[in-house]
Structure formats: structure tokens, C-alpha cells
Amino acid sequence: MPKHDLLYLDLPTYMRKFINLKWRQIILGLSCVLLIIACNNEHPTINTTPNLSTHSLKVATDPTFLPFEIQTANGNLEGFDIDLMNAIANAAEFTVQFERLPFDGMISTLQAKKADAAISGITITPQRLKTISFSRPYFKAGLAIAVRENTQDIKDLNSLQGKKIAVQIGTPGADLAKTIPNAKITTLNSGPEFFQDLLNGNVDAAISDAFGTLYAIKIASLKGIKVVGNVLTQEYYGIATSKDSPNLDLINKGLATVLSNGTYNQIYKKWFNTDPLQLPES
Ligand code: ARG
């Protein structure tokens, strides 16, 4: 066979080899590009991929606190805190098992490590920080005075002197009421009881969370009650754990993610129909 024939005959084989090599390079190149895209793809929206993590946290909540945690007629949990806790779990890759618990027993349950965490509109206070730990603040709140709509003589903290006041047991509202001269304090176990006692005329006023009360009046159409005066305190809610719990880092990591990727804002807007207030980091 003449030499040029051999060359000619070998050309397809050569081409095939060349193409194979080229394809391999192209495929390799494309894979690298895809890998880089996958690594850099930070999703700003709520991550809906099922959470396959086996790390599960038992999270206590007292679902009597509109709109943070409430129990619907069919027994489901709903509210700002519930959405937030689920989003945090999704971001930090753990699962949540909610456990209903009266607010009064929340702190001792955490201390006894019978729950891994609690989300329940819990105000971070120096007193509580002695026995339990808190995540970074996740909500700016404050106390307000609620009275019956036809009340004229109660306008601020001063005008509560000598009045009958309802508060929730073990809360900052209960602490504040104790400082009012001659006040007759009724201590109740849960939020909705305030409104009942107020409407019944059993008490003259209630000191409770401003957001919860305003939400009940405006959005849940609670009739016959108004909020008077300014917001009395500046408080922050935190997710509570036992003292220095190893879960705190995980919760803070998830909270930082949802605060920065827009999920927190979406949840805030859903429940309060406005943009969130500025939060400190600690
Ligand atoms: N913010 C108040 C506190 O920490 C009241 C919270 C009540 N929460 C509830 N889920 N019942 O004491």
C-alpha cells in the first residue's frame, strides 16, 4: 500500500480519536462550569427542599399568643414564631418537633433539658439570662396598656395607680405591674384571658405585649378593647435554650441565614403587613 493511502485510510481513525478527545475536554469543561455555578448558587427565596437531616430539636411553645403562636381549630400550630422556627431549621438543616407547653413552665423545662429550645415570644431579660440562654434577638417588642373602649380615666402608667390590672404570670408585664402603687393585680395563665377579663369588667386594664394586643384588635377584629398611651418598654424576643446549650450555635446560624436572605422579611410581612424593625445582633 502506498504511503499516502495509509495516511488516507488512517484519517477517520485519527479524526475519531481527535473528536473523542475534544468531547472529553468539552464535557470536562462543562462539568467544571456547572460545579462552579452549583457552589455559588445562594438561593434568596425560601428553601423548599425536604430536610433530610436526622438532627431533630424538640421546641417548646405556648400557642396562646396571637400572632406569634396559636393553635388553629383543627389543632395545627400557626404564627410568626412557628414560620420563623421552621425557616431556621430549614436553613441550618435540622428538623423541628414542636411541643405545646404552658408559658409558665417554659423556663424550668429548658433548665431540666426536657426540651432543646423554646420559641414563644419570650422576652430576653437579665433575670432570665441567669438561668437560660437566648439566641440573638429576633423580634423587637414592648408592653402596652389595654382597656375597654369606653374607658376614659386610664391613659398611661400613672393613671393605673389603684386600678385592677391583669397580667400574665411570670412575664415582664407582671413585673411592671408590681411597681404601680396600690394596683390590684390579677395574674392569669394565658393571653386571651386578659381580653376576657377586661371585657367582663373583672379588671380595669391589662398590661401585655403591644404587638399581640394590636394584632388582636386590628387583624383578628377583637371588639370592645383599645390600647392607650405609648409603648411602655423596649423588649426583644429570643429563642431560648438551656444555659449554653450546644444547639444555640445551630439556631443562631439558621437565624443569621434567614435574616440575611430575605426569608425573615417575608415572614414578617406575612404576619404584620409591614417591614421589620431594626434588630441588634446581640
Ligand atoms: N413576652 C412575654 C414574656 O416573655 C410574654 C410571652 C407570652 N408568650 C406566649 N406564648 N404565651 O414573658
In short:
The chain has nine helices and 15 strands. With 282 residues, the protein is an alpha/beta fold. The termini are far apart.
- Given helix and strand content, the structural type is alpha/beta
Beta content = 15-25%
Q: Do you know the CATH architecture of the largest domain?
A: 3-Layer(aba) Sandwich
Multimeric status of the protein: single chain
- Name of the CATH superfamily of the largest domain: Periplasmic binding protein-like II
Order of helices and strands: HEEEEHEHEHEEEEHEHEHEEEHH
How many domains make up the coordinates? Answer: 2
What is the count of helical runs?
9
Strand order of the largest sheet: 11-10-12-9-13
What bound compounds does this protein have? arginine
What is the overall silhouette?
globular
Beta strand count: 15
Please bin the fraction of helical residues. 25-40%
**What's the CATH class of the largest domain, please?**
Alpha Beta
CATH topology of the largest domain: D-Maltodextrin-Binding Protein, domain 2
Low-confidence stretches: 1-15, 41-45
- Main beta sheet: 5 strands, mixed
Span of the ends, CA to CA: 86 Å
Q: What is the typical, i.e. mean, pLDDT?
A: 86
Question: Radius of gyration, Cα only, in angstroms?
Answer: 29 Å
